[in-house]
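Ticket #4471: structure export looks truncated?
Reporter: QA, pipeline team
Priority: medium

Steps to reproduce: submit the single chain below to the structure queue and open the exported record.
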Amino acid sequence: MMAGKSDTSNRGFASMDEEKQREIARKGGESVPDEKRSFSKDHELASEAGRKGGQSVPDEKRSFSQDHELASEAGRKGGQASGGNFSNNRERAADAGRRGGEASHGKR
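Actual output as written to the record:
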């Protein structure tokens, strides 16, 4: 057995628990001002990067293509995190309607 090999197995980002990793990653993202975030400024660039990332993974290793329940669960979680849609929040829907109406007046 090599000396020191087992000493490094509990060090580094990959060995941290998921919550600690998320906390560190979140701080990294927050440290970049909005105007310097490429994907927030260029949605086409973000879309292209996502496509390329997906294409680089072989079909047999794509979690969602192999596990439709996992994909469905992720979609539900995303919807819940986004605050839901207008059917879940009538006041939000009414507010959006008012704003849309105000913005469109006189522009027929």
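Status: closed, not a bug. The export was complete when the record was re-opened. Leaving a note from the reviewer for reference: The two ends are 79 Å apart (CA to CA).
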